[in-house]
Design brief:
10 helices, binds adenosine-5'-triphosphate, Helix Hairpins, homodimer, 5-stranded antiparallel sheet, 45% helix, Beta-Lactamase, alpha+beta, binds magnesium ion
């Protein structure tokens, strides 16, 4: 590549050059992605269209002073926002206006996410707290000498406090996984053994709800991972299958090796946790791994859920360079598939 | 400005060009700020010094393929981190390597801040929660029929639950102020009236600790603001003066109009809340407005504090386009000064 086009290609932002004839004289690939593949050579008025940007360019073409303004893009439902930098340039090859688009979307979303997070945490805490405070007051007053009431209230208080404790624990766990997300865990973890111990722990819960769980362990499959975290992954998936699969539910867990998984580009292993419960409406599936997202908040709360389980699962799977796939046919059941890179001899 | 220098000036990142003689042929102001004012014309090896960056530039000079690497800067104790984009350019004026520095510091800090925030919130909640759960268990077991113990425990439980409720309320309040920070509040608020009602509310607390508060209201001073939020500001400042000023403390509150405050560049008003307590070590002063920061965590907790008060004050003052200044002489007392723009006739 030569000339100003080579300079634009070297700028790590969407950038374009408007020549003295007010036409788009050069672009870089990021600018074409943002504004459309066919904008080269067009008059800038027909290519950019947002009044603030047009005014800034016109003014800078006229007085050569640099300017800054905003640009909003929305592509297939996703909103992005940019700070647009407009500057006059004058080189032997050409002169005109250089327009650079600085992407602010991620930064703005981070701020919004933090606010949503605080609002969600506060909301989750407020309900049990209000209940606790109410019971404390009742015990101090009207129920003061009523032994039966005291016992019952203390039981509920314990449940509410345990729910809050679980929320705090899950929040910390999520935060820890996030902070380690770039550090790939490298201990060999035996997959069937891990799943086996999860099932052992969850047996009482499954029995209580009349769930049958079928699992055929496959010996000798190891993944590079963190044993505690992988245990958390399968605990949440199986717990969900028990909780949301309904009574008399059959749960199947299978392990399958993949010689060269397309998405991992390496030997992998797929674990499928399948239930025959009511399933999940496809509308909800893409959002299940968001923090606090629940299809039926009331039902999840009733079972002591915090809505953080699948968010933690997703981050742990990411940290293991794996994939989580969720599929469901309403009325027939759901399948949560975890694909992980397999331990290979060269890693030993 | 002309030539490639004008192009570099139009790029909203630190950027420089290395010519075929391996010397720095052009820079923009952001690059000089980052790398030093004297780098123009120097050999790139002496100006850039970080091995990864040097290797990337050498390779791109040789094979003309674009590259990406990292750069860490630390300036007066502040660490910044950059993604460095290296690309070969070839224009009629010159050829060589364009190096652009994309600043990632803010994004990385945002992620780190969120993790710290979660860790802090969890930590603050865990202590009272553990206490609550312990008392519930004790009431269910050993203290079951001991009326006196029950009364005492319920009292402590109420305090702990109230502390958690306050934390949740303060978190929400902080989050709300942050999300509105760009929307300037525009109602005229009577300053002396606001402070007067704050003092009325805090009178019992001051009396309990033997504090005297002197305040001379100044009539007719209004600021464009949000009355509830300004009330929160002065409540926290006076509450702090009472709590941390010690017994027998004298607190003075003064209002002073500023005809044209230098930092506000407009008519302003300064409110000073001064105490004659033990004061604050200068080391701590810059950090007092951080969330959860306390000089003496134990002492603050004892008084039911969450360490969010001054963080909320700072954000409210920012939203009002004002300034918060903290000064203190250990052993003599502290002064918290809030400067706000004054309501002017043209705003009516
Ligand atoms: N196997 C399943 N069948 C039907 N719905 C499911 C299934 N697994 C998860 N869900 C839905 O996804 C939501 C999110 O699951 P997630 O594990 O993140 O939270 P939770 O189970 O509600 O709470 P927690 O895991 O913190 O106890 C659940 O509330 C439920 O609505
Ligand atoms: N007037 C003062 N004199 C001495 N130290 C002070 C004074 N005001 C604040 N501080 C110190 O600054 C810290 C932060 O104050 P801040 O108002 O943010 O939190 P807090 O008072 O501890 O809790 P909260 O305001 O949430 O009840 C306090 O914990 C205290 O150590
Ligand atoms: Mg779950
Ligand atoms: Mg305070």
């Amino acid at each position: 590549m030569q000339g100003l086009a080579s300079v634009l290609a070297g700028i790590p932002l969407a950038a374009l050059l408007i020549g003295p004839d007010q036409r788009i004289a050069a672009t870089n690939p990021a600018a074409l992605d943002l504004l459309g593949q066919g904008i080269g050579g067009r008059h800038f008025l027909t290519a950019l269209r947002q009044p603030d940007v047009l005014t800034a360019i016109e003014s800078t073409l006229r007085d050569h002073a640099p300017r800054r303004t905003g640009y909003q893009a929305s592509d297939s439902g996703r909103d992005s926002s940019f700070v647009v930098h407009v500057a006059y340039i004058d080189t032997p090859e050409s002169h005109g206006v250089l327009v650079c688009f600085e992407d602010m979307t991620e930064r703005e979303q981070a701020a919004q996410m933090r606010r949503d997070f605080v609002a969600n945490v506060s909301h989750e805490l407020r309900t049990p707290l209000t209940a606790l405070m109410g019971f404390i007051e009742t015990l101090q007053g009207p129920a003061r000498r009523d032994d039966k009431a005291i016992d019952r209230f203390l039981g509920i208080m314990q449940t509410e406090a345990a729910r809050m404790e679980r929320l705090v624990r899950d929040l910390l766990s999520l935060s820890r996984v996030e902070s380690e997300e770039r550090v790939r865990p490298r201990e060999p973890v035996d997959l069937s053994g891990t799943i086996g111990s999860v099932l052992y722990m969850l047996r009482p819960m499954a029995r209580e709800r009349g769930c049958e769980i079928a699992f055929d362990p496959v010996e000798g499959i190891e993944v590079p991972g963190n044993a505690d975290q992988l245990q958390q992954v399968f605990t949440n998936l199986v717990e969900n299958a028990i909780k949301y699969g309904g009574a008399g539910n059959h749960i199947t867990i299978t392990i399958e090796t993949l010689d060269k998984d397309v998405t991992l580009r390496a030997p992998g292993v797929a674990v499928r946790v399948r239930d025959r419960g009511p399933g999940i409406d496809p509308l909800h599936i893409p959002r299940l791994t968001e923090r606090f997202y629940r299809v039926d908040t009331h039902r999840s709360r009733e079972m002591g859920g915090t809505g953080l389980g699948l968010a933690i699962v997703k981050h742990i799977v990411n940290r293991h360079r794996g994939r989580l796939r969720i599929s469901s046919t309403p009325g027939e059941g759901s399948e949560f598939m975890v694909i992980l890179p397999r331990w290979t001899a060269s890693q030993g």
